[in-house]
Amino acid sequence: MPRSSESILTLAGIAAGQWGLLTTQQARQAGVTYQQLSRLTGEGFLERLRPGVYRLAGTASHIADPVRVAWLAADPTRTVHDRLDDSVVDVVSHRSAALLHRLGDLDADVVEFTSAARRQPRDKYVRLHRGDVPEQDRVILDGLPVTTVLRTISDLASAHLDGGHLAGVLRDALARGEVAPDMLTEVLRPYAHRYGHPIGDAEGLVVTLLRQSGIPGEVLHRLLGPSADQDRSGDSAPGHDHVDETDGQAVADELSVLAVAIGMLAASADPAAQTAAANAATAFASLAARVSGSNPLREARGVGSPPAGDRPNR
User: Phi, psi (5° rounding) for residue 48?
Assistant: First the structure.
């Protein structure tokens, strides 16, 4: 068998358990010289992804490839299998973990790992965070050790990721059922003050971020309950201010107009009118809350509720 064919089989055996990737050091340990690697690359059997890391020709690309390449290069003599069995391992974290979890829309030009080992990364495109990631805070994702969704959110908040991007991460995590709202408040509580909320006010922070992410108010209410109606950076949320006597009459007049509109629209068979009636009912409830201070979506009856005959059919 020609020597090049033996080298290809050797390299294929290494790459088989590493997403089609291998390092120069792994190849040399298996008896393949640097010159043979260079020749196989020139012949199209290998693709050089970065200094010291290659991919077998024909291997499909993957969104995790930049992270996989950086992870392999961080400890190039050992195989993926050996490193995953190690008690001290580089764990994909922060923005890179969000990328692999498909959370938010973050720039991940620098690959981020968290490790208990003390060392300086040799790669300028790698950021190494010193810290412990216990087993309950990591999962295997795309073949790599990655911080869990909750740990990733905590790490991003600890690194003071801007609110707009953190909001997108929370939105996607909730939308996919990866976390529950009370879990978010627990992990974000230490960082509430960094985002303009009172110390420990994670509930207010979660509401603010989810509103910022574009989740409609009625969906927020179903997710969070009464806390969705509160703006904890002040006494009440915009649009739900508890009014005093000076403008109470003006709000009462608006309520009367809306009640009439709801009755007229609800009586129509036109689907568009039915939708408009539902929107008017929501506006009615919001104004009623300003007068009564009540939670408009939790109370079926009470101060400011429209008459039963004026409620739209749903």
Answer: -85, 115
Structural domains of the chain sorted by starting position, each given as residue range(s) with its CATH number in brackets: 3-60 (1.10.10), 91-229 (no CATH), 245-310 (no CATH)
Token pair belonging to 311: 């409620």
Q: Which residue has the higher pLDDT, 82 or 249?
A: 82
Residue 151 vs residues 70, 178, 188, 196, 256: alpha-carbon distances, Å: 21, 12, 10, 22, 50
pLDDT-based confidence at residue 221 (cuts at 50, 70, 90): confident
pLDDT of residue 90: 94
- Cα distance between residue 94 and residue 198, in whole Å: 25
Cβ neighbors of 267 (< 8 A, separation 6 or more) are: none
SS3 category, 5: helix
Residue 195 CA to residue 205 CA, distance in Å, equals 7
Q: Which two tokens stand for residue 161?
A: 């990721």
Q: Which amino acid is located at 250 in the chain?
A: A
3-state secondary structure of 164: helix
Classify residue 40 by burial, with Cβ atoms within 10 Å: 0-12, 13-18, 19+: buried
297 vs 53 pLDDT, higher one: 53
List, in order, residues 6 or more apart from 153 with CB less than 8 Å away: 166, 169, 170, 173, 179, 184, 187, 188
| pLDDT tens track for 9-53 | 999 999 999 999 999 999 999 999 999 999 999 999 999 999 999
